[in-house]
Design a protein that fits this description.
Layout (H helix, E strand, L loop, with lengths): L6 H15 L5 H18 L3 H13 L9
Helix pairs in contact: 1-2, 1-3
Amino acid sequence: MAVELTDELIELERAAWAEQQAGALTVETAAKVQAAITAHAQATGQNRYDVETALKKAVRHPAPAPDAD
């Protein structure tokens, strides 16, 4: 079963990843992402670890866009 992610989760992780890349990740940002992951996993009945893994993969290693030939 594919892990379902929301736009809100993706945006939170993108913000955290940008901060991390800049060496400026705050505890507040990291905690916000973790809380959102946990709440989403509980609300959707998904495994929290699977949600976090899929989210990080989607943000940090996005699939290439298909060619528009």
